[in-house]
Amino acid sequence: MFLRQYVPMAIAFVMGVVFAVQYYVPHPASEELLTTVNDWLIVVSGFSMVLGLASLMGSHWAKVRRGGPGWGYSLVVFLGILGTLAVGIASKGKMFAGEELTLTALGWVYDNMLVPLQGTVFSLLAFFMASATFRTFRARNLEAGLLLTAAFLVMLGHVPLGEYIWDKVLGFLPPKADQVMGWIMNVPNMAAKRGILLGVGLGMIATSLKIIFGIERAYMGEGG
Amino acid sequence: MRKLAEKILSMDRRAIYLLMASAALLPFLTGPLGLPSRVSPEVKAVYDRIESLPEGSPFLISMDFDPASKPELYPMAEALVRHAFRKNLRVIGMNLWVTGSGMAEKILSDVAEEYGKKYGRDYVYLGWAPGATNVILGLGQDIYKTYPRDYYGNETSGMPVLEGVRTLKDIPFMVDLAAGDPGIETWVVYGKAKSMAGGCTAVIAPGMYAFLNSGQLVGLIGGMRGAAEYEALLKEMGKATVGMDIQSTTHVLILGLILLSNFAFFATRRRR
Amino acid sequence: MSPELLGAWVAAGLTLAIFSFLYKDNPFFKFGEHLYIGISVGYSITLLVFNFMIPKWWTPLFREGRMSLLVPTVLGLLIWTRFFPRFSWLSRWAFAFVVGFGAGIAIPRTISNFIFRQVESTAVPLVSRGQQGVSFGWGDFSNFLIAFGVLSVLTYFFFSVEHKGPIRPLARAGVLFLMVSFGASFGYTVMARVSLLFGRMYDLVEYSSRGYGYATLVLLGLMVAVFLAQALSKKREGG
Amino acid sequence: MTIFLLMWPLLAFGLELPLLSASDLPGDDGKAVLLLWPRMPYEASEVFYVVQGAEGPEGPFEEIARFPSNSHYRTERRAPFWTWRKGKDEHFFVVRTIGGRPLESGREYYFRLGVDLGEGPSFGPAVSAIPKPNWFDFKKLNNLIFMVLLAGVVLWFIGRARKKELFLRRIPGLDAIEEAIGRATEMGRPIYYLTGRLGMSSVSTIAATIILRDIAKRTAGYDAQLKVPHTDPVVMAVCREVVKGAYLEAGRPDAYNEEINFYVTDDQFSYTMAVDGMMVRERPAAVFLMGYYYAESLLLAEVGASVGAIQIAGTDAEHQLPFFVTACDYTLIGEELYAASAYLSKEPALIGTLRAQDVGKAFLTAFLVLGAIASTIGVWAGIEHKIDYFLDILRDFS
Predict the structure, then answer these.
(1) D298 HSE (CA, 13 A, CB side)
(2) Is residue A1's pLDDT more than 80?
(3) Reported ipTM exceeds the 0.90 cut
(4) Most confidently modeled of A30-34, B33-37, C160-164?
(5) Is the Cβ–Cβ distance between C117 and B216 less than 8 Å?
(6) Mutual orientation of helices D348-381 and D335-345 as an angle, nearest 10°?
(7) Which of A196, B217, A211, A210 is nearest to D364 (CA)?
């Protein structure tokens, strides 16, 4: 109990208080402390990244071993990892090699596999968005109507063709489409985002305080 | 009429996908539409800030994105690095998103080659390091401790490109190009940049206006449109400018769909 | 086949495999998606080793003998005790170190950047003084709207009192501001998604040229043929 | 003698040189010196002040700065009223480098000030100062006080919430839950509950499991059919416990079924498609989308709306809110999700924190209103500098 519960709580408390107070102390000794500990933590981040990557590999390996439905896809994940790793080691982790900057094997995998795959997965959203807009964007009430109008105006002011249409249809109005969009972004949108930001800021401070005082212990993991 | 409206409302999703694909392919078939985008004050502010820097000033660009936002942020990064090289600034590149390393490296080396810039003297790529918040904090303390070596394994201390630069405070201007978290907010909170601007995907741009208004960001380049505006300012038409055509066609399609669905919706509702 | 040509075929094939999801969830898509996960993890490990483990940890610690790196090494090893359930509680010490530090540095910086800076630029004069004395222009109106908007959104997220009386219209105004900002976000997001689409379309169009051996067209044809054959065989089975 | 000759032109015009004072700049790391000197009657934009510095009393003096004499008044420095007096009666200059070399702490430096009327500067006597590092930056005092006060408020309210129940307003979305479950029972169709795509370490997932408990209690009472498809095995394990507990509490352990919570896949789009497929087939009467979502939000909410379900969403994923707001009947926006979970769970730590944050918000709201009014009056009456005393309280001077 002491080692498992109180020691980590004490560590979090000391670290939290010291580094909150450090901010107010301009003395070089305090800056040196921040620099040193911060450097350590960059190294620690590297170690914790291994933890994340390894647990992902572990879960796919377990699927391959159990051979349940879709285990083949987990094998694909595994082959992808091993293949890229092999290619990466062969290329010493660099995209280009030599004076001529020729593409290495890793560069080839990156350019022709990783970039198109990731790009395409996310570009699917353009299609989903179009269909979702069509099916759900209805001015059912005042709220939805406002949302819709703002979205409409921003989209119109966002593309050259929209500006062109605005000039042709509403050209007699003093503001141009891009100015309308700019005002929406800078005034009502900004105000709402700032309101949210203030709330989020208070929330972040409160959460940090709770970590320091040992009230919030989710970081300890199971049983904490 | 009502039947038609109901039919429209229950249109198969794949029909919309097909419309969308056609709208996206249209500019490839017709050729460029040649419609210009007007330059917004947010983007102009970034351009002016770089213009105002004296020759030889260090300029930091952090490319915190991955291939998923390549079409938006890659042209933006290219345009900014191009502008910096044109002004003979010393470019310091880095990134905080591991899968973006390759792109950041490519942008810097491609544009450097174009302008005949020499590695180590005119520009440096510090590369990726884990622990984004700590990296940003560390740069505010001591760049050489955070990045003792650059991406290629060279020692950073003594590099001519970093002369006179010890911490972020010695860099008069930096731009963060971000696709999410860690990104602009992280730099705003933990960075000690003297003056900073942001470039980001269109998804996160609306949230950044609070920092723009408060002056924590001097300028903001939002999405492909922002990149196209920057290309227009540089008078160098790149991929973002080309991409604005498909933005035009697809946006107008979606606007049309919104109108259509709302007309149909009200047509079916009024009869009820 | 040159690496470039092969690259075009692979890229076009993988792009189409992912796009096939628009027709329906299918093995091509699943293959592509899992390959994506695998490659991105493999790439991350590669970079972790070559850009971090070797230059920033192994070389300074074991070759140059920077003993101060022993501290983070021990912390890192403590984190790795999560791999061994019996000792995994030890990882709490390291996590407490990291999380405590994070909480500590976050507080003052959040106060300064998320609270103070935002408050300062909201509590601004709502009139301006020019050559002709004090006036209330469009800019001042916008400033007023900003202050009112921030205020009403804060009120909406206030949970200690019922939204009754004078608070009710204020909270309601907060919702309306939120809606406009959601709409603006939506309008902006469309651009982001279409940008990605443009990126992929650009490549697909390029790869369908003769120089690349009509890669896109050939692969698209093959994929359609597979789907058709599958649909036909299903029909035959059904009929 | 030489000095007298150099000063001759100034004396001839009846001008005297300002008296320079140098001291360590307070609240820094000991690498800067603050110079102050009074305002002189002959100041104009054509008259320049020249600041020079040296590492020894005999020089050599090097030029540090040169600026019009009607600038660098005390008012121009951004500093709070509790460390710095504003005004136009004195000039200031902060020296950080001499000849490009940064000042070092603990070393004595010499400075002199010259006035240039256009024919080269005339210098007054040199003064010296030793920059020293400080242990507290008083410019950040307001930040520290804010932190201490907020810490006090958080701890106090958590403590109070442990002793007695604090009032929290009911979130309207929670009333909609009752209605949705009632309707599902009437129609005999299932209820879908999704917990988002993050693991148990996320606040929004925790909130989602707390709300699930409440919903499970109601479905147990109504005998409605609940379905919770999962994407994270750990979250599924937790939710099984939660639902089981809820059914016991409702007195219906017989109605509990392990299959209420089931695992689909961890893969984003495959999960989404699978859940969409189930929704199309089973046409649920109510769909709850709580927790954190990514791009799949759009697909899930769209299908739910198209099968005619009552949909209630709750997320702190800001980017997904537009889709939920348009496609769902009710949406818990951002903090409302946490508030709903605090309301339902009655957990003192949650309620206390929420109350503390409310106090913070009330304080900020009041300050904003007063600040805007005060600075408006300031401009109106031309007393902006007086208003600064108030606005400085929540200004950032780092």
Answers:
(1) 23
(2) no
(3) yes
(4) A30-34
(5) yes
(6) 140
(7) A196
